[in-house]
Amino acid sequence: MAKEKPNMNVVFVGHVDAGKSTCVGRLLYDAGLVSEQEMKKLKEEAVKYGKVGFEFAYVMDKIKEERERGVTIDLMYKKIMTKKWQITIIDAPGHRDFVKNMITGASQADAAFLVIAAPSGVQPQTTEHLWLLRTMGVKNIGVAINKMDAAKYSEEIFNKVKEEVGKLLKGVGVNPETTPFIACAGLLGENVVKKSDKMPWYKGPTILEQFDLFPAPEVPTNLAMRMPVQDVYEITGIGTVPVGKIETGIMKQGMKVIVLPGRTGKGVAGEVKTIEAHHETLPEAQAGDNVGINIRGVGKKDIARGDVICDAAKPIPIVEEFIATITVINHPSVLAKGYTPVFHIHTAQVPCQFAELIAQIDPRSGETIKESPDFLKNGDTARVRIKPQGNVCLETQKENPYMSRFAVRDAGQTVAAGMCTEIVKKK
To answer: I want to staple 196 with a disulfide (CB 3.0 to 4.6 A). Which of 114, 136, 190, 201 is the partner?
Structure first.
């Protein structure tokens, strides 16, 4: 058996009607991963629902309800082979109510495509999507300027959108000069897999080619093993199967593990019985791999989404309180002490209280601008003390950056994003 190509997780994000799912569906179809028959069936279904032109989006949007509404709700995973990688594509919802799934998607990504529709350009949520990608540690971002067919393949429109997006990228600390901008049309397959002859002025790569141009993801196998649980399934003949991405370290068959915080908040110990990825049983898996595992001694009642499976010898701390650096992205008014929104930490969701606003800081230099500010407003970066209102596992940026990031959400929006710098462990 040939050595598997290394895996790279790529998330597609963008505003609800930017054509993300269509780009991804077209990519899979043109790469030969969706049969003519299946495509024909999807096309008929699209017509039936009065959604002509949605057939490519349906490739990813498998859920019936999504088909009727024409929006992506859950994360979908699909594999595609390029010259260098085995790419796992994560199609993340752009719809407001579904940003929490998108956060989970972005936190698993090595690279991202921000899909923007050429005719409509930058949307209010585009900034939020970029902030999330940055906070979640996605350093490699490509911009797909889609629906070029609707913009009559105009170079002028492409450049205008490129400039708008460039300003936003600068604002989140990404250099637009080194960021790839791809002129494409998902529905017609222009510059998705096949090079387009409609835009002779465009000299850059297709979306498929860009995958191989992204730098290799760092594989943090030197850190302690951590696997945040994304879902838990009951599989006949096997039992309880938690599924998720190994964020750091190496998981081996027979390894002693502990599930934290677990239902009781004290953790549940077990031993890795089997590790499976893409229907193959593996002796071990490492950081970056999306796996399903079965743990001896851990049943359905012991484990849930948001728990972290760790090396028993190096457990992740359950935190009493923590200090973090946050940036306020999108708060309707101002953020003050006592505010208790929901924190999305790896796959966990826990209400946490802002116990103290320690200092407002300059995000570029880290210097203190103001000690103990009364409140924070959009665009402010600050050091804050946070008190979780439930059990949550978290590490510091220094110990394990992959397990230190979080997003703060309230009333359907991402209010802030940040990373943990110090923790006080639970007794």
So the answer is: 190
